[in-house]
UniProtKB/TrEMBL annotation:
This is ATPase. CDD domains: SRPBCC_CalC. It comes from Parapedobacter pyrenivorans. It comes from the Bacteria. InterPro entries: START-like_dom_sf (IPR023393).
């Protein structure tokens, strides 16, 4: 078994609000620099049902599925098969995907701990060790969760429910 990345961050939202903002407002907080489309990004979304996709859409009908939702319990967690290879290439084979679970746990009324777990990097094959180190570093999940926390603090766009 390979390395398991665990990260957490607290936000001043209910678990339902945090879950909904994380999923429905992905385009508002996920950095465009972390997409293939960069500044030409048209849409980035997660369809939060088992078998749903995490999808990026760019110019000229560009589309790339980053992952596939394998489990979800609204307001509590979502698990995605992470289908981006260590060489930053989409990986259509789910057997070669790692797994990301994001949990939303109520700490107090109006405050939620977001707990991220990213594991099974070994499924990616060659280069997985460097990949897991990068995702565990300052420019990996730490940065991405900080982007979400900043969005949560801003309060802009925080929705009441997930859009399907």
């Amino acid at each position: 078994m390979g390395k398991v990345i665990r990260k957490q961050i607290d936000v001043d939202l209910s678990s339902e609000q945090a879950f909904n903002a994380f999923i429905s407002e992905l385009a508002l907080w996920w950095p465009k620099a972390y997409t293939w489309s960069k500044d030409k990004l048209v849409e980035i979304s997660i369809h939060p049902i088992p078998g749903g996709h995490c999808t990026e859409k760019g110019p000229n009908d560009f589309r790339c599925d980053w992952g596939t939702v394998s489990a979800v319990k609204h307001g509590e967690y979502i698990t995605v098969m992470w289908q981006i290879s260590p060489f930053r290439v989409p990986e259509p084979d789910p057997d070669k995907a790692s797994e990301v679970t994001i949990g939303f746990r109520t700490i107090t009324d109006g405050q939620t701990r977001i707990e991220l777990r990213h594991d099974h990097f070994e499924n990616h094959g060659e280069g997985y060790e460097k990949y897991s180190d990068a995702m565990d570093g300052e420019q990996g999940w730490d940065y991405l969760l900080a982007c979400f926390a900043k969005h949560a603090r801003s309060g802009s766009g925080i929705t009441a429910e997930v859009k399907s």
